[in-house]
Structures are given as C-alpha cells and as structure tokens.
Amino acid sequence: MLRTGIIVIVGSALLGSGIVSAAPIVPDSFAAPASPESVSASIVGDGVRVSWNQGSTANPPVTHFVVHGGPRSCPVIVDARKSTVVVPVAADQKMFTPVVQAVNAYGFSDEAHASEKLDVRRIADPDFRGVQLLEFSDFHGAIEGSESNAGAARLATAFQRDRKAVQPTFTVSAGDNIGGAPVISTTFNEVPTIRALNLMKLDVSTLGNHEHDRPLTHLRSMLDLSTFRWVASNYDTLAPLQGKKNGVEPYVIIKRDGVSVGFVGMNTEDTLEVVRAENLAYGIQGRKSLNIETSARPVQRQIDAAKRAGADFVVALLHQGWQENKGGVAEGRLIELASALTGAAVIYGGHSHQQFASVIGGSSVVEVPNSGQVYSRTTVCVNTQTDRVWGSHPSFVTAKQLTGLTPDPRTAALVTRYRTLLGDRLDQVVGSLDKVLPRGGNPPVERSGESALGDLIAEAIRTRYQTQLAFINGGGIRDSLPAATYLPKNTSLRRPTNSNSGPFDITLGDLQSVMPFDNNVAVTEMSGEQLWAALENGVSDYPGSGRFPQISGFRFRFDPDQREGRGSLRSHSRTARRSPETAASSRSPPSITW
C-alpha cells in the first residue's frame, strides 16, 4: 500500500488514514550569496587582471565566481578558491569596467563593480569572441502582449536591438512554443505562433511536450512552416519528425560572423505520460510509437558529435525544469541532467515555468518563466582558434523592462490580423463573476492545493454528467477566470483592471483560454482502492505537478512528508498548509462511483 498519509472522505465514509501530526515549519537561512567586495582591475600584458574579496560567508557555499564586463566582454568562470583572474579582451572591445558575481547552488549574487574603467582597445584579441545568446522557453503561443507578457511584437523589437548591440547573436527556445496557448493561437492550429517566431528571427528550438498536443501530422506541418531549425537528441527515431521541407535534427550547427555554435535538444520524458498515445504514433495504422529517452547519454553523444563536426562550442536546450532550492540544494531534472552532461558551454531549461540561474560543472545553467514574461541574455567567451570556452554570464530581461519599446510593426500586424479574424464569436458572454478566480503563482495554486477555479470546473463536470465524484488534473487549467490572456474585441465588456473589483463578464474566449486542450471526459465506476491510487498519483509530486487533483463530491487530506510504499516521495518546502486539504461538496452517499 502507498503511504503518503491520504485520508479520503466521501460523505461520512472514511476510506483511509495515516495523517501524522505536523511539526512547525522552521525557516532556513539558505540564500544566493552576497556580492564580492573590493573589486579592482588593471591591464597586464594581453588581458585585464581583476581581483576581489569574497565578502560575507554564503550558505550554501560559493562554488564559482563570474567575472565580466557587460555584453561585449569575454566573461570568465573561475573556481571559488580564486580571488584574482586575468580576463582576455574580446575582439572589437573598447572599454572594460570589470564586474564580479559570486555563484552558489541557489544562484548569482548582485554585481560588484570595480571603480576602474579601462581602455582596452590595444589589447583586444581577434581570436576571443563574446557570443550572445537570447533564450526563452514555454512561450505557449503568447503572441499578444499583456501586463505580464511582452508579446511577440515587443520581443521581436528587443531581439533586434540586442542583435545590433552584439555580433554574433543566436536566438533559441527550450520548447513548448505551441500548445496550452491562448485562443488566438489554438483557434488557428498554432499557425500564428509559428509565423510570429519566424518574424522574431528564432534560430533553433528543441521540442517540448506541448509540441505533441496534436498528432504528428500537425507537428510536421509546424516544422514545414518554420524558418528556424528544430533539434531533439533523445528520441529513439527522428524519421516520423520529418516534414516535406523541414525536419527535426539530432544536433544543429549554425555559423555566424565567424563563430560556429552547436545546439542539442532534449524533450522531457513526461511527454509519454501527459500527451495522448496516438499523438506519438506513426507507421502503418499507427502501430509504432515514438520513445523519448530519460538518460542524458543520447544528448551527450550529440554534444560530442557537434564538436567533432566543427562547433566552436555547444549549447544544450533541455525541456527539463528546475523545481526548487531546498536545504542548500537545487532540485529538479534540469539540475540532474546538467550535472550529468559535459562539454556544453550553456545549458538552458524549461518545462517547469520557473526562473533559475547558477553554474554547474563550469556551465551556466539557466531557466526563464513561461509565456514571454522573461528572456535570458547570455554572453559566452570562446577562443575560436582553440575552441576553449573561458566562461559565460547570463542575465534576465523582464517584460516590464520592455514596456518602452516600440513593437515591431510586421509582427504587430500579424497579431492584429489574427485578432481580427477571431471576430466577435468568442466575445459571447456566458456568465459573470464577482472576483477573479486565480491561476498560477509559485507554486501554482491549482497544482499545490484546492483552487476555487478547480472547484468550479470539477463541479461543472460532475453536474453535467450527473456523477457522484469528479476530478481533473490541475495542470490542465491554463489561465485565470476571466482569462488574463484573452483580450476581447468588445471593449465595453467588464474586465479586470488594477482599479476595479467586479463583477466581470465571462466569455467563450475566457473559457477556451482556461481549458485550451482537446481533452475528453471519461465516466466510469471506481472502487475505493482505485480512487485512493488515483489520488496518490495526483499528489505524488507535490507541490507544482500538473497531476495535482481538483475535485468535486468528496474531500481528502494528505501529508506529503510521508513516503510511498513503492518508492520515495520527496519532501518539499512549501507555502501551503502542512497537511493540505482539498474539499468540495460532500452531498454524495458513501458508495464510490464516479
């Protein structure tokens, strides 16, 4: 029997027990490090000597220092035992103001600047290049801008600005460009998003699980529509992922301005569980199915292959996520895989919609939030004659920082055209709410406990199909209600703003934004044992997992600190109650029929 301490109550029927009294949560003292101190610099020979003091003791301890001088510079990563380093000067660099940041498992310190501003034109070395990478992930068709999302047109302008500032620049995505998207993308089979990414001049993307939300025929049509390249290194075969014009490659090499950069990709193995089996089927009558490898080994093979094929350095695009920092340790599949891979200068993550940056094994490991809220800008220092990477430095650019930019006209026109094509049909009002029912957060409310919106959806399903119980997975809820991503054409509709408090109109567009997937409702009979097993599965990756159940017709509690009988259940720090309870209407009789 599994033992996560679940207790299920249907009416007054007790199906299980095992709740343990909860000890108080004691806050820890772990944090990203403080800034180094006393940074100084001077020109020595063909480089700049930078020195510093570590400063305050860090917990977890400092593992590295990153020394850089801005976007055009040549960043260097050094071991935490060092307090001085000679930094090479990149080609065409004119001025250098040294910056030092301490790094631990939790992230980067604030920048510590030297007072010196050095003229380095006479020692600039043409063999050293500061290569810029612009990266985003889990875009999910967020082509329209909002208060939190930059939108495709403003991102296109930002990327164009960054490319002008630094040559060469490469723009990449760590997957989930489409799927789970607002109605402006899903209504038109995700075509608007791919066309927007083309205008944003994306260079290469890996596949995420949501690229498989529809059958392979649809994915192949997206590949053919793309002017950028796709890479995936952990599929057992790429043969079914070849369109008429474009296809997915095991690795990609792009040469620009004298620098060759290799890219490898990895999709999450969760894809096999979270998408329909038929979406991975291929061959005669769909008898074969794509398999997605869990191990880092196939990705490592492609890193090595890209280097043998002439890449000056390699970037790994992993649709795998960081989850949390806990007890001095960063946790998540992204961290596990970054620790297992060697030879990638930068490793980008995705899938978990979180923000993270650290250094693992000498490589910058970076993840940004979803839907264009943030993109990362990373500079890599490489000697193009020896292919030695000296270091890298990531920074984050938020949607708020882009509010003053003029949206790219061509991309804005594309978005406007599809918004017009939606017409008035999705503005049809179907109800109203006194207040916004939220979705998201850290951890997301619908993935870590009872959610008002989850209750509403589960209750609606139970009412529609006249069942005693109902449950849905919290990860299927993709927007608040009213939807933050739905912008009605009818400006007279009552919509949430910073200054009003409701009531608000609910439209068909809102409902489609909240639940954009083409899911089916299944009606069946369940035993108490089966219900218990389903709930165990639902809470087994608490908090934050998309499988977390939102329910109607019963209530249950669980203790996430107990362990499963068939494998360990990780303990998580959290903001939810120690013994969370998910409750809904208890009108059902004790029999367990869903």
Question: What is the gist of this entry?
Answer:
By secondary structure, this protein is an alpha+beta fold. 18% of the residues lie in helices and 27% in strands.
Structure description:
- It is globular and about 80 Å long.
- A hairpin with a 2-residue loop joins β9 and β10.
- The longest helix has 14 residues, at 152-165.
- The strands form ten sheets. Strands 17-16-15-14-13-28-29 form a seven-stranded mixed beta sheet, covered by helices on one side.
- The model is unreliable at 1-5, 9-27, 565-581 and 583-594 (pLDDT under 50).
- It is α+β, with helices and mostly antiparallel strands.
- Among the domains are: 31-137, Immunoglobulins (Immunoglobulin-like), CATH 2.60.40; 203-350, Metallo-dependent phosphatases (Purple Acid Phosphatase, chain A, domain 2); 427-582, 5'-Nucleotidase, C-terminal domain (5'-nucleotidase,  domain 2), CATH 3.90.780.
- It has eleven helices and 35 strands.
- The two termini are 22 Å apart.
